[in-house]
Each structure stands twice: as C-alpha cells, then as structure tokens.
Amino acid sequence: MSGYFSTPKSNLAMRHRVGGVWKAIFFLSTAIGLLALAVLVITILDDVFGLVAVVDKVDRTTLADRPLEDLEKDELLAILDKKVSVNRLRTIQRNGGFTLDEIPAGEVYELVIAEVVKPTVEESYPLFDSLFKRAEIEAEVAQKHPDATIYFYSWLNQRFLTNSMSTTPQLAGVRTALFGSLWIIVITVAFAFPIGVGAAIYLEEYASRSWVNRVIQTNIDNLAGVPSIVYGILGLAIFVRTLSALTSGKAFGVEGVETGRTVLAAGLTMGLLVLPILIINAQEAVRAVPNSLRQASYGLGATQWQTIWHHVLPSAFPGILTGTILAVSRAIGETAPLILVGASSLINKDPQGIFSYFTALPIQIYNWTSRPQAEFRNIAAAAIIVLLVVLLSLNAVAILTRNRLTRRAP
Amino acid sequence: MTETLEKQHLAIETRDMHLFYGHFRAVKDVDLQVIPQKITAIIGPSGCGKSTVLRSFNRMNDFVPSFHMEGEVLFHGQNIYATDVDPVMVRQRIGMVFQKPNPFPKSIYDNVAWGARINGFKENMDDLVEQTLRQAALWDEVKDDLRKSGLSLSGGQQQRLCIARALAVKPEIILMDEPCSALDPIATLKIEDLMRELSEQYTIIIVTHNMQQAARASDHTAFFTMDEDRAGIMVEYGETNQIFTNPRDKRTEDYITGRFG
Amino acid sequence: MTETLEKQHLAIETRDMHLFYGHFRAVKDVDLQVIPQKITAIIGPSGCGKSTVLRSFNRMNDFVPSFHMEGEVLFHGQNIYATDVDPVMVRQRIGMVFQKPNPFPKSIYDNVAWGARINGFKENMDDLVEQTLRQAALWDEVKDDLRKSGLSLSGGQQQRLCIARALAVKPEIILMDEPCSALDPIATLKIEDLMRELSEQYTIIIVTHNMQQAARASDHTAFFTMDEDRAGIMVEYGETNQIFTNPRDKRTEDYITGRFG
Amino acid sequence: MPRETLDRQIRQLQDEVLLLGSMVEQALLRSVEALRQRDVAAAQKIIRDDLAINEKRYALENAILILIATQQPMAHDLRLLAAILEVNIELERMGDYAKGNAKVVMQLGDSDIQVPMREISRMAELAVGMLHRSLSAFVAEDATLAHAIPEEDELVDALYNQTYRMLVEQMIARPEMIDHVNLLIWVIHNFERAADRVTNICERTVFIATGELFEMDTDDLEDIE
Amino acid sequence: MPRETLDRQIRQLQDEVLLLGSMVEQALLRSVEALRQRDVAAAQKIIRDDLAINEKRYALENAILILIATQQPMAHDLRLLAAILEVNIELERMGDYAKGNAKVVMQLGDSDIQVPMREISRMAELAVGMLHRSLSAFVAEDATLAHAIPEEDELVDALYNQTYRMLVEQMIARPEMIDHVNLLIWVIHNFERAADRVTNICERTVFIATGELFEMDTDDLEDIE
Amino acid sequence: MENQIVKQQVIRMESAEQLVIHKLRKRPRLGETFIQGFLFFCGAVSIFTTIGIVFELGKESLLFFQMPGVTLVEFLTKTEWQPTIGKFGVLSLINATLMTTLFAMLVALPLGLGAAIYLSEYATPRARSILKPVLEVLAGVPTVVYGFFALTTMTPLLRAIFGEQVQVYNTLSAGLVMGIMILPLVCSMSEDALSAVPRSLREAAYGLGATRLETAVQVVVPAALSGIIAAFILGVSRAVGETMIVALAAGSGPNFTFDPFQAAETMTGYIARISGGDVSYDTPDYNSIFAIGLLLFTSTLLLNVISRRLVARFREVYE
Ligand SMILES: Nc1ncnc2c1ncn2[C@@H]1O[C@H](COP(=O)(O)OP(=O)(O)OP(=O)(O)O)[C@@H](O)[C@H]1O
Ligand SMILES: Nc1ncnc2c1ncn2[C@@H]1O[C@H](COP(=O)(O)OP(=O)(O)OP(=O)(O)O)[C@@H](O)[C@H]1O
Ligand SMILES: [Mg+2]
Ligand SMILES: [Mg+2]
Ligand SMILES: O=P([O-])([O-])[O-]
Q1: Phi and psi (nearest 5°) for C25?
Q2: Looking at the domain assignment, is residue F310 inside a domain?
Q3: CB pairs under 8 A between C and F
C-alpha cells in the first residue's frame, strides 16, 4: 500500500490474512462435496467393468468344430435339442412368450450359452485393478482356476438390459425391473399430476384464509417431510391390505393375482409420496407468476378461471413441468416404500398391466447389493448405472423443456 | 364546483365511503365526486389510503380477503357494491393501469386483443388493435412487428401498451395507480401527455406520489391524509390549479409545500 | 470553475475515465472534478451510466466480474485503481448509501457500530454511535431504544440510519445512489436537509433520477447522457443554479425542461 | 417530444400577452384620437376599458403562477414565464398611461388650449410602433430586433423636448392656461415613458434568449421624472 | 419540518427586500435633503447610488428565478416569491424617483426659485413612512396593516394638490421660472407616485396572505399621469 | 341552444345508465363453480393422506400395544428388541438411529455450510452456476445407491483405516455416507438462504470497508441464520427417516451399543427388514412396524414443523 492509503494503524493486513484462510476452508468444503460425487461415480464404474475369470460347465469345443458364434441357427437348435430336455425347452418358450422357430440366431446362441455351456464367473475384478494389476490377476487366476478364461467384461451390456431376473449373475437382467419402474411412474404421474396441479391452483388462487385452507397448506408442507418408509407403511396398510380387492383387480374381474402387491398399489403409494412435493413445486411455480399479471387480467374484466387458464397456468407451466419431473425422479429412485408394498425381486415376468406383480430397478439394486456373492455387486452397479441414466435423462428432458418453454414465452 | 352537477354527470361518486382491512379502518368517510372526461389526481402521504380508494372504484379490493367497505360507490347512479352487481362487469367498464408496467408475456397484438376477446368482441380485431395502439400513442413505435413480445418493449412503451390494453375493453373510466413511478422522467412526461389526450374521451383517476405529476397532469386534485387513528381522510378536493397555488386547508398547504410531518 | 483549483483541493478527480462491462463501453471519457465539501449531483436519462460512474468512485464495481476501467480516478492525488491500492481501504474513506435503505438486520446500535468495529475503532463506541446518529438527525427519534432492530424503523429513518452507519467509519466522501427513490416526498426532503448539513463536513456525490432533487439539494450538477453507441458521456457540469436556469448545452436544456427523447 | 401541455400553455400565454399588448396599443392610440376630437365620451370609454386591461393583467399573472406551480418550468421555460410576468406589469402600466391621457381629455373639456396635435400624434405613433415591434420581438425571442428598438427612443425623446418647449411657451404666453398646459405635458410625458417601458420589454427579450439580464441604456433627461 | 433550505433562502430574500427598501427610503429622503441644501454633490451621489439599487433589483430577481427553478415552491411559497418579484420592481421604480429628484436638484442649480420645502418634506416623510410600514407588513404578511396603509394615500394626495397649486401660482407670478417650477412639480409628483406604488406593495401583502389578487382603490386625480 | 345540448346529453346518459345497470348485473357462471369444487377436492386429497397415515399407524399401533406383554413404558425404556420372543425395547433401535444421524450431521453440517458460503459468497456466478447443479446431482442420487456406496467403498475404507475392529456392517459407515447424501440438501438450502439475503446488504458491508470474510460471516450468515438452521433441522429429519443406507450398511439386528464400528439396526432398517419378506399380517412383527412407524412419523413431523417455522420467520424479514 502506498501514498494516501497507507495508514500505520491499519489492521487490514491481518484481516486479509484471516480472510484468506477461511476462504480456503470454505473452498475445501465444496471440494469435498465434489470429491464425494466423484468417488461415488468411480466406485460404481469400478464395479461395472473389469476382468472376469470364467469357467464353462461344458467345454464349448465339444459342442461343435467351429466357434459357437459362427454356427447357423439350425446347428444351434440341434445342440439345444441334443443337450436340453424337452420339458425345459417348453418351459423356456412359455415363459419367454416365443417359439424357437421365430427367434433369430443370436437369441438361440444366447440360449445355448445359458442352457448348455453354462459359463460361471469364478472371479471378477474391479476396473482399476483390472487396468493396473492385470499381471497379478492373471497369475492369481492361473493358480486358482487353471481352466478359466480371463477376459475384460462389461457387466452393463445388451443382455443385461434385455434379460429378466436370474439367479445367475451373468444371465440376470433388468428388463422386468425397468418395465416395473416405468409402470409405476406412469401410474404415479397419472395420479399425482392432475391432483397436484389442481391442489396447487386451489391453494394459490382460490383458497381464502379460512382455517380449512390453512390446515391443508400446513398439512402438505409437513407431508413433504415425512420419511418415505412411512408412506410405505401407509401403502401397505391401505392399498395392499384394505383395498386389495381393487388393487389386485379382483373387483374388476381380473384373475390370477391374489394379493394387492401390484404395480397399481405401488404407483398409488408413490403417487401419495410425491404428491406433496409436486404440489409444493407447482405452488412455487404458480406463486412465481407475478401478481401484476393477475391484476392486469382482472383489471380487464376477466373472470378468475379465465385469468388462471390464460395467464397463470401458461406462465407457470415450465415451472410445473420441471417440478413434476423432479418429483418423478424422486419416485424412480425410492426403494423403501416399494419394499413395504411388496415388490419382489424374484419376478422375471414383465408386468402386463396395472394388476401385475412387479419388481423395480431400485429393488433390484437393493436385492443384489445385499447378496454376498461378488458378482451380484457387479450387476448391482450395472443396474445403478441404468437407474442413473434414466434419472439424468429425465432431468435433461426437464431442463430442455423448461428452456424451450421459457424461451418461447419470455 | 360539484354541487351544481347532476348525479348522472358524475363519473364516480362515493357516499360516506369507509374502507376497512379487517378491523382497521384504512379510509374514513369519503365523499368524492369525480367529473367525467377529466383527470382527477389523488395525492397524499404514504399509507393514507390512496391506492385503497382507487382500487375500491373497480372492486379490485375484492381480492383482499380482509377488505370490506361501508357506504356507496356510485357509477352511473348505481352502487357497484350492490349485491346483484358482478364485479367482473364493473372491471370491464372501469379499467385499471398499474404501478409497474405489467404486459402479458404475449405478443403486443395479443396483449391488446386478449381483453377484448374474452369480453366477446366480435368485430375486426386488427382494426381494434391498431386503433387502441394509436390512441395510446404507441402504434408508430410498434407497428412494424406486432408479433414481438410485449415484454421486449421499454418501460415507458410497456406502460403505454398496458394503457392500450385497457382501452381495448372500451372502458369509461381508467384508474391509474402511480403509473409512472417505475419510469424515467421522459417516459413519465409522455404518459402524462397521453393521459391528457385520453381525457377527451375517458375519465381518468390517477394516484400519484409525485405531487408535481398531479400538478402537471390533472384537472382536479383530491388530497388525502391520515387522521390520528391512521385512517385516511379526504382533506381537500378541488381544481388542481387552486390546490397548488392556493389550497384552502392548512394540511394541504403543508403537504404540497413539503412541510408536512 | 474548476481550472483554478489545485488538484489536492479536489475531492475526486477523474481523468479520461472509460468504464466497461465486458466489451460494452458503458461510460466514455469522463473528466469530472468534484469539489470538496459540496454536494455534487449526477443526473441523466436511465442507463446513461450514472450508477456506474458513482460506483467506480469507491470500487464497488469490482464486484461485477465483467467490469473494467481505463483512465484514472484520483483521490488525494492518488489513483484508487492503482495496483497497490487496497479497495477495502478505499471504501473506508469513500462511503456509500444505496437506493433502497438497507440496514443490517441488527440493532440500531450495532448497525452504526459494526463498521467502526471491524475497522479497528478502539475508543468509546457509545459516544461514536450517539454522535453519528445525531449527525444523521436520527438520535432524537431512536435514542430511547437503540436495541431495536434497524429494520423496525420507517423507510426514511432507515435511510438516515444507513447514513449514520456510513458516517461512523469516518469517510471523507459519501456516495449516494438515488438515496430517496424509495422514500415518500417528506422523507425525501428530510434527507435533503440532512445532506445539506453534512456537506459542511463531507463531500457528497449523489446520483438521482429526480431532477428536482438535484436542483433542490446540490451545489454542482453533472449531466450525463448517452451518445449514439449507448455509451454514457458527461455533457455539462457546472453550478446547479446555472444548470437549471441557464444550461449551456442544448441537450441539457432539453433534458431538464423535459423535452428529451 | 413531451411537454405538449406546457408548450401549449406557454403559447397561450404569449398570445395573451400579444392580446394585452394590442389592447394597450389601442388604448394609447384611442387616447390620442380622443384628445384630437376632445371626445369626452371616448375618453370615458378608454377609462372603462382600462379595467379590462387590469383584469387581463391579473389573469395573466395568475396563469403564470399556476403554470409555475403546476408545470415546474425550468431554464428557458422559466425565464420566459418570468419575462412574461415583467412584460405584463409593464403593459398594464402603459395601459394606465392611456387612461391618464383619457383623464386629461376629460379635464380639458372644450378649453381653447392649443394642442400640438401633430407632435403628440407622432410621438404616439412612434411609441406604439416601438411597443408593437418589441412585443413581436419578445414573442419571437428575437434578440437582435430587441437590441435595435431602444435606439428609437432617442426620436421620442427629441420629440418630447421639442413639444415640451412649445408647451412652456404657451404657458408663458397664456398664464391662465397653465393648469391645462400642465395636463398636456403629462400627456407627452406619458408617451415618453411608454417608449421608455418598451426598453424594458426588450431587455426581457434578450434575457429569454440568452439568460443574461442587463439594463439597456436609456440614460437621458426624462429620468428626472 | 423539512424545507429548511427553502425557508432560509426565502428569509434571505425577504431580508434583501427590506434592505432594498431601506436603500430606496434613504435615497428618497436624501433627495429631499439635497433639494433643501441645493447640494449638487449629494444629488450626484444619489444618482450614482441608484446603480446599486438597480443592481440589487436584478440580483434579487435572479435569486428568485433560481429559487423557483431549484426549490419548486408551491402555494404560499410561490405566491411569496411572485410578490417579492413584484415588490422588487416597485422598489426599483421608487429608487428611480429619488434619482429623478436628484436630477432636478442638479438642474435647479442655485436658481432663486421658491421651493415649498415644508410641504415637500412632509410629503416625503409621509411617503417614506408608508413605504416603510408597507414593507414591514409585507414581510410580516400582515394583511390588516396592509389594508390600512393605502388609506394614508389621501393625505399625500391632499398635500400634492396643495403644493401643486402653490407652484402654479408661482408660475403665474414668475413666468420666467416656469421651467424650474415644472421641475418641482416633477418632484412632488414623484412623491405622490411613490405613495401610489406603496399601494401595490400592500396589494401584494394581501395576496400572499390570502391568495387573492385584487386592486386596491387609488382612484384619484393623479391617475392622469 | 346550449341548454338543449345539455339536455340531450342528459338523455343520452340516462339511457346509458339503463344499459349499465343491465350490464353490471350478475350472471351465474356454473363452469367456474364446478372447477373450483374440483380444485378444492384436489387440495383435500392431502388431508386424506394424513388422516390415512395417522389412522393406520394409530390403529395398528394400538393393536401392537394391546398384545400381551407389550407396555408403553417398556417400549420406550428397554434396550432389547426381540418381538418374536416378547422383548419390546425400542431404545436399541432409537439409539442406532441417533448414532447414524449424529455421524451424518457431523459430516453434513460443517461441509454443507462451508460449501454454501463458498458458493454464495466467493464463487463467481459462472463457477456457481456449474458447481451448484453438480452438487445437487448428489441430492438426486437414489439412496439405495448410497447404500451400495457405503457397503462397497466406505466400509472397506474404514476397515483399512481402523482395522478389523470395524464390522462389515456398522453405524459409522452408514452415518458418514448419509452425511454425504444430506450434504447437498444442507448446502443447497443454506445457499438459498444466503443468496436470499439481499445484495444490498452485502454492498452495505463492503461500502463500510468490510472484507469478504467479514461480510460473509458477520452480515450474511447472521441474516440468513434461521434459514440455515432450518436446513440443519431438515437435514436431521432426513437422516432420521432415511432407510436404504442404514438397511444396507448399518446392519440387520437390533444392537444396543455406542460403538460406531459395530452393527446396529435403526428404526427404519428394522421396518424395511421385517416387511421385506412376506410378513404375515397381525403378527407381533407386523404390528410393531406400525408402532415404530408412528414414532418415526411423530419425530420427523416435529422436526419439520420447527424447520418450517424458522424458514417462515426468515422469509418474513426479506420478502
Ligand atoms: N391488503 C391489506 N391488508 C391490510 N392492510 C392494508 C392492505 N393494503 C393496505 N393496507 C393498509 O391500508 C392503509 C392504506 O394503504 P394504501 O396502500 O391504500 O395507502 P397508499 O396511500 O396507497 O400508500 P402508498 O402511497 O404507500 O401506496 C395503510 O395503512 C396500509 O397499511
Ligand atoms: N452489471 C452490469 N453488467 C453489464 N452491464 C451493465 C451492468 N450494470 C449496468 N450495465 C449497463 O451499463 C449501462 C449504464 O448502467 P447504469 O446502471 O450505470 O445506468 P444508470 O444511469 O444508473 O441508470 P438508472 O438511472 O436506470 O439507474 C446500462 O446500459 C446498463 O445496461
Ligand atoms: Mg399506493
Ligand atoms: Mg442507477
Ligand atoms: O409608471 P411610472 O410612474 O413609474 O412612470
């Protein structure tokens, strides 16, 4: 400091030093948060990809003189006929809803691998070990499983997406869970969106200050903070038990479903769970519409509904939409309530309608995570990636839609 | 001035009007007679109830749940607070322009057309839009692109758009609550000139914090202040020229010369 | 007027000052010489860069990342933008009062004391608080309860509290950016009277939209406007009396008579 | 360009000033005519009409005050209004001179005094002409013209001195007429002062145009008044 | 109570008016003294001092304009300023009368004309007294007092008539003195007009106090001027 | 002539008056009434939800407490929880919940507030516009993923540091990961509170010659305090109610211990475990989850109410 600004008594140097130290501390906090995110992502990736040591139950070379991949469809069918019992084949066709004649060679090949070759992963290694300690791994495998083949494997692959549940990690897939989650979401949105937006409009536009409305508002705010597992208990008690006639479809003459542990019950439970969040988000969007807009409308002699329909809703729509998508992404990731309303991770039949039993992505993750075998951890990680991708794309859609809508109506 | 006027010659007449928010009497006992096709200004210190009075003229206060009123507000001799009167209809006849320009986030065209449309206007909308934009002295500035958003205009233009929008509903009276307080001095003067032109066809009532504005732009001025119990009262009402050169009441004098409080 | 003044007699002097936001030149080539212990008003149409100029006097613009400046702002002959000058120190010497009253959500006492405390004030704080509140013509109104929150005061009182708070740091110059635009006319006049009193000890620079305020309250007036490329330029600078009765520049005349734009 | 109201009102005021000016001009000219004709009735009418001039003066003054109070004129507008105020006062005073002349006519009755009608007429024409042009300059804010007019005052002064001498001679010749002659001295004096006042109007014109107030030189004998 | 600046500036203006008033009073009284003493030097001084009066008048006028431009006075404040403007003009004119008297003193030289000193002194005293009190009333905004003062004008008028007659007799008696006597008639006329102008000041006082502008009655012979 | 004009005008106006009276008259708007009724119903749905929750929880809890051997006192004071053998001391579950919550908040509070201050007071707008959403991604990650993370990363990490005394399932790991999960919530809410403090307040401080730190800590944080506290409390509530992380990482099996390295089951973990299989209705197990649910519901409700009060107070000052 020079000239006029240098006062000897100034305490500024000290103050700037203290300021610098704390700035570093604050930055560190932020950095740790970011670090956590990074570690989380790495952990997952670490488990999804990596080396596996695989041992085939039946030696492939005994099945054909060429590599199995190169065989024609009828050759593959021949192998199946030879090695798999007729009953088993029938079961497979019934469960899958296809006949062997229809399906392409690729799928037949898959069947051959699954039913005949039956490869088992004896050992799987995380990504980073696989990359940096390949030699050690090879040595270890050579010693422990002399007849295993080692190759680099992505647990997240096409089969994983299209297969349904299986007790064999390599064969297990998330198709059923994915469909389950989608069904739940559709029901959730169909239930919660109209009611949520309606409630938000009621509270923001119509509600007077009467005690009824105050109670409603307070109630919604508090419901938003109720732990999801409590909703699960509620869903269990109401939708699964008390209303089981409705949720199992018995009341509508649907056969084959015994209890209320259906997609419908799960969707409704999720609907209740996201409803307060959706209402609050929508309320915020409606509230963000400047009052001046309403006044302008009323001042022109518009009725209340004209005002809402023509001005408030269009202006609030981007906000409502984002709010809804955010609420939905919450619903996709929720696990606890689904555990309570009885998602079963062992289901391998896609839900056929709202009265089906179901499983869902997070349930699948939960289930696989809590199993002891290492390979389930790998597919849990793969399922997590699927889940995160779904979430991120939903969010991306939300952001894009909002941007487009706001640009059009600035 | 007003005694000689027949009631059908008044644009708005209040009788023993008291305005309340809950138990708080915000405005006390106002007998105001607004002359048609003139500009009437309401001035007074902050919180004296100017806006409350103005908003009682087209029942905008209905949206404040705690609000209620006593007395009468006569429009064409009819009390607009009578039970069989529809406030929506009142607001069609008595338009309003607000403090902050608040165009709809729509095109300029739709801003003007919307009010007419919901009120069942069936004739040529293009003509109406052009005509009202001309009336609001905005046509020349926007005619090249009526599809542009109303929000893309400058503050002063937005306010004139809001005026055009109000005109399109064909009101008789236009209420303005500090219409220029968000504008710069030049835009303000433009709006004032516009008001002057409009007053040939419309009755205009304007609330303003800006005494100079009331002085410049109005024909009649009502001065409000608060009495001891914080209720707004009308102290003096008369020709603007008289109020600003020779007010009759000491409180008016103190206020307009800046010696109040 | 200013040519005869030695530079150490100027409160602030700018030389070839250009102010930029990113690539946009908001203010162009200002040579302004602010006379100490006088009130200097900066007026001009919206967006002409008044606030930008004012905030460049105590480096408040540093907080706008895109901001940069060319030229010099001299305070006691030293360029406050020199690399070895600490902006914190500049702001201690050149205080600021803002458009909206912004007292801290603390007690009245703490509002006044805080600035002094962080700047290492070691003497009797009670005395300082009383003295600055007196200077700001607020003491009598608040002395009974200095523990009350600053936010519980009325708008005009809050603004005076903000002035007191600025005074407590013992600045030489007080910058005010439209300090009355959120106040009613009476509170406004009170602040103006206060400014007049303070100008015996402090140099005051005030930005105002309100020409009348500049006319009433200032000794010197600088008129800014925008040139074709939207950059702010200083058109005329002189004694307030002269600017308002007999401006030299046509643009000034047009602006103050309301014939601009 | 806003401020239409102010501009319109200022134009109205200027028109009113011109109107007042022409009323005064008429009154002055009519007072000469009344003197020529010894027309007492016409003189009475002039006196009555002066009331209208006075009223107009007050009305104008009031309008200016209202304009200042309501329109916040600044700079040029304000100077203009202040100038109108001053011109207004001057015109009213000139109206009084016409009234004074009319009273002289009434007091003279049909006394057989010799009225130097040619000179008085000439003075009146000169003064009224100056007044007329000064008001044109005033409204047009023509500083150049305004600067030129006061110079004509010399002509009026010369005429005044000449006529004064004639009248004094008459006094000496006919002492019984002294009272009446004195009245005629008032008359020529009134015109001389009227011309004088025109100077003030010109001063104001320069003031509006430039913002500078300065006294134009009229330093001549008649200052003994 | 805000508006301290405006109040202070208005008070200053009023003080200035009083100052100007006392300058004018002095000038009038000194002109009588100069006449009594036939003191040409004193007369010259009065004429020189009139410049100061004129200057003060312009300064005051300018200050009022600035005040109107910068302080936006309304209602009473504005009326006060307008009134000061008018009073200011009247005072300057009265200053001119004193100057006129001084010029008369210079022209009389040591002529042996009989000056009715007693009457002139008395007129001057009366007029200056009225002026003084009218200014007090003006500053105090005392409408009652302002109403009372113009009535005294009758005294001045009576004295004027009386002195005028005396002077006319002197004319008749000494026709060679007519020119000089005429000068004395100017002098008494000046005082009579000064008293007249006081009426205008009183009018303004009432105007400030009540906002009503109306002409006070001064309908008497001297209107022939 | 003039009179006539006036008269005509009067007549014109009178007919206008008729028109006006006619026009101003109310007309029924059935559609609007119907819509309003429907919207009210939408609002009321949430009330039914609450009633449902309270009723079901209450009803089943009542059944629970009516079962032989269950008393409220025992429930709330005993530390052993073995419903199948008639031990109903919920303290062990509560204790585990509190421990995980404590660990979570020890992570989330300082880091969340620190990050919030950094983002709102130090980061450039550009940096903030990138960093904040990135941090909020953390908040959007489903909790089951955090459970996975705790199990596969945090626990091995802890074992690497503290050795074998750390059990595979332990409250510390669950708590720390829960802290990471809650951090963005605390950060985001605090940051909202901080940036809701008007810019003018900061400018006021800077204008008095304050440094950034002084402004942030002595002006902005106090001004936003109630908002920050609300964030903390909401964080606590979230931690108490969190299920999946503890279900996966804290261990299954009630255990009354203060050792963070030991496994211990929390309330939520217990509910999830019991209902995970096909519980048969009207067993002690089944009923007990309602009792615990009720406990959970009331405690989180309380926390939420407090938090909301604080936010409301905060809003009052600045909006
Ligand atoms: N919605 C409301 N509820 C309760 N009181 C209100 C409401 N609106 C205004 N008030 C009160 O009524 C009084 C008059 O308010 P109003 O807004 O009409 O005053 P105003 O003269 O327009 O003031 P300003 O000049 O500040 O706009 C005030 O005391 C105000 O606090
Ligand atoms: N932070 C900023 N970033 C970019 N441009 C800015 C910023 N602040 C102001 N400007 C621009 O700089 C110019 C001058 O702005 P400034 O606020 O100084 O004007 P002003 O004269 O104070 O206007 P007003 O009277 O409306 O306050 C304007 O064009 C404005 O858009
Ligand atoms: Mg208001
Ligand atoms: Mg600004
Ligand atoms: O009008 P005057 O009496 O001053 O000539």
Answers
A1: -85, 105
A2: yes
A3: 68
Whose alpha carbon is nearest atom 11 of ligand 2? C26
The closest of A189, A203, A334 to F46, measured between CA atoms, is: A203
Ligand 1 lined by B26 (C-beta under 6 Å): yes
| pLDDT tens profile D38-80 | 999 999 999 999 999 999 999 999 999 999 988 888 888 999 9
Residue A127 near residue A45 (C-beta atoms within 8 A): yes
3-state secondary structure of A121: strand
Kindly report, residue by residue over C36-68, the tens digit of the pLDDT: 999 999 999 888 999 999 999 999 999 888 999
Instruction: Check residue F126 and give its pLDDT.
Output: 87
Query: Which residues of chain B have a Cβ shorter than 8 Å from any chain E Cβ?
Result: 211-212, 215, 244-247, 253, 256-259, 261
Q: Mean of the pLDDT values across residues C184-204?
A: 89
Q: Tell me the percentage of chain F whose pLDDT exceeds 70.
A: 90
Higher pLDDT, F79 or E58: E58
Segment A86-114 shows an average pLDDT of 78
CATH 3.30.70.20 fits A175-408, yes or no: no
Mention the CATH class of domain E3-224: mainly alpha
The answer to whether residue F71 sits within a structural domain is no
The pLDDT tens digits of the residues spanning F31-54 come to 888 998 999 999 888 888 899 889
Domain that holds residue F55: 2-66
Which of chain D's residues have a Cβ under 8 Å away from the Cβ of B240?
70
As a whole number of angstroms, the distance between CA F247 and CA F279 comes to: 17
ipTM over 0.90: no
SS3 A63: coil
* pLDDT the model gives residue A145: 82
Domain positions in chain A are 47-154, 175-408
Mean pLDDT of F62-77: 80
List residues in chain C touching D: CB distance below 8 A. 211-212, 215, 244-247, 253, 256-259, 261
- Chains in touch with D (3+ beta-carbon pairs under 8 Å) read B, C, E
- Residue F125 maps to a domain: yes
Question: Where a domain ends, among F66, F87, F106?
Answer: F66
Q: Could you read off the pLDDT of A300-333 as tens digits, one per residue?
A: 889 999 999 999 999 998 889 888 888 888 888 8
Residue D1's pLDDT is 53
Between C39 and A66, name the one with better pLDDT: C39
> What pLDDT score does F108 carry?
94
Tokens standing for residue C215: 């006319």
Query: How far apart are alpha carbons A49 and A237 in whole angstroms?
Result: 41
Architecture of domain B2-256: 3-Layer(aba) Sandwich (3.40)
CA distance E46 to D83: 29
Query: What is the pLDDT, as a whole number, of residue A406?
Result: 65
- Domains of chain D, residue spans: 3-224
**C-beta B18 within 6 A of ligand 1:** no
Please tell me whether residues F219 and F296 are part of one structural domain.
yes
How far apart are alpha carbons F16 and F23 in whole angstroms? Answer: 10
Overall average pLDDT of the F133-158 stretch: 88
Tokens 């005629």 sit on residue: D184
Q: What count of CB pairs under 8 Å joins B to D?
A: 34
The number of distinct structural domains making up chain F is: 2
**D59 interfacial to chain B (CB closer than 8 Å):** no
- Angle, to 10 degrees, between the axis of helix B125-135 and the axis of helix B108-118? 110
The alpha carbon of residue C248 is apart from the nearest alpha carbon of chain B, in Å, by: 20
| Within-domain flag for F269 | yes
Q: What separation in Å is there between the alpha carbon of C160 and the centre of ligand 3?
A: 23
Query: Residue F8: its pLDDT value, please?
Result: 43
How many other CB atoms sit within 10 Å of the CB of residue E169? 12
* B126, burial (CB in 10 Å: exposed 0-12, middle 13-18, buried 19+): exposed
- Can you name the residues that pair with A150 across neighbouring β-strands? A53
Round to whole Å and give the CA distance between A217 and A213: 6
